[in-house]
Amino acid sequence: MRLNDRILGVLLLALAVAYGWGATQFPEPFGGAESVGPDTFPKLLAVVLGISSLYLMLRPDPDNAWPWNRTGVELVVAVVVLVLYASLLQPLGFIVSTTLAVGTLCWRMGATPIKAYVTGAVSGVAVFVIFNFVLGLALPLGLLSFLEVS
Q: Which residues contact 91 (CB under 8 A, 6 or more apart)?
């Protein structure tokens, strides 16, 4: 499995570089280049992904077989949920789409549906409040745009 890990590491490194480059294409925030802007979080993710992919290439796991059983199915479900999350973020809004994504992932990890979606709702609202009111970064409201304060 060393070759598979190294191939995955190369692909993830290419993704990290592309993602980091894409983040540099955002316009400069109003407060200037030194303030936290829309490019800050994607750049941090690109750095973490790049370091992780380098580690995967340099220190692959020698005896890790790919999980083609239920774990493999759960990985596919998680990827589908994250792709849907990204595509529904603008139309549904941050809070609704985060509630659905986090709730679904928690449920797939074994939480009861009620606890899973309550966790998703609390996470969505908490992160929205932090980004919108503490950091001053607007997130899309989508379906909840009637709550927008002028």
A: 142, 143
Cβ(123)–Cβ(98) under 8 Å?
A: yes
> Which one, of 77, 64, 85, 87, lies nearest residue 127 by Cα?
85
- How many beta carbons lie within 10 A of that of residue 60, not counting itself? 17
Q: Give the other-Cβ count within 10 Å of 97's Cβ.
A: 23
For residue 95, how far is the Cα from the chain centroid?
14
Angle (CA) 33 34 40, round 5°: 80
Which residue, among 141, 96, 84, 147, has the nearest Cα to 123 in the 3D structure? Answer: 96
Instruction: Say which residue the tokens 């692909």 belong to.
Output: 11
Encode the chain (150 residues) as per-residue pLDDT tens digits.
677 788 888 998 999 999 888 888 877 766 566 666 677 788 889 999 999 999 988 888 776 666 677 777 888 889 999 999 999 888 898 899 999 999 999 999 989 999 999 999 999 999 998 888 888 777 887 877 776 654
pTM score, whole prediction: 0.61
Residue 28 amino acid letter: E
Report how far Cα 99 is from the mean position of its chain's Cα atoms: 13
